[in-house]
């Protein structure tokens, strides 16, 4: 087992994905009153799950995420943002991010203990 | 995508909503103004919002260093901005008030096309949007401070 294993790499990519998702949701909320704006989202779970199936550290490390655009709109001005849904998604994403960071930190502390610097 | 993009985006939302509130307040303040800037009654104004292109430090640095934006960069989130403030050119209200200094020969005064109910609804909408942006900014802030804990 190498020092930085696939799980640690995947955690790092997931943190990056959740951070990107936060930006995208913030953008949705900022554009909640922009006519014709369609909501965007980042499905980093699926992208990362596919990369992890390869079990190749280089593939996992190089995983990049792309925002996708929704196509639905419930309003006359063509805007597709529902502020309640966005708020819920953002709260969920924030908690997920903190969970990911906690796990990453715990694993780093294990390394540090093993190295005798913790 | 930089670390503080989410905060910048929420910031753009805050200033856009604040501008909408300013314009709504101006409309309400001038609801009885019969002498507007063009001589006639005041005409209500409205802010047109549009999606902004990312233009933060990270984007500028990447373009200055000649980096080609990757796939999906065209739809990278950049927040919101006010495109323009348009004047509502709908007809002014006519109120019969012969004693008014601005009354015409028939005794009618042209009053601004401001409906206080519409303005109050707009005010609530922009206030709620403002709060949503503040919440998004707080979430981003707590996420990033959690990340900085990694370094401790």
Notes on the structure:
The complex is a heterodimer of chains A (118) and B (152). Chain A is mainly alpha-helical and 118 residues long. Helices cover 62% and strands 3% of the residues of chain A. In chain A, helix 1 (6-30) runs antiparallel to helix 2 (44-53) and helix 1 (6-30) packs antiparallel against helix 4 (83-115). Chain A starts with 5 loop residues before the first helix and ends with a helix. Chain B has one domain (5-151). A two-stranded antiparallel sheet of chain B has the order 1-2. The interface between A and B is large, with 36 and 42 residues.
Topology:
The complex is a heterodimer of chains A (about 120) and B (about 150).
Chain A: H1 6-30, E1 40-41, H2 44-53, H3 57-61, E2 68-69, H4 83-115
Helix pairs in contact in A: 1-2, 1-4
Chain B: H1 5-29, E1 45-51, H2 57-64, E2 80-87, E3 93-96, E4 108-111, H3 116-148
Antiparallel strand pairs in B: 1-2, 3-4
Helix pairs in contact in B: 1-3
Radius of gyration of chain A: 18 Å
Structural class of chain A: mainly alpha
Helical proportion of chain A, percent range: 55-70%
Largest sheet of chain B: 2 strands, antiparallel
Poorly predicted runs of chain A are none
| Extended strand count of chain B | 4
> How many DSSP helices of chain A?
4
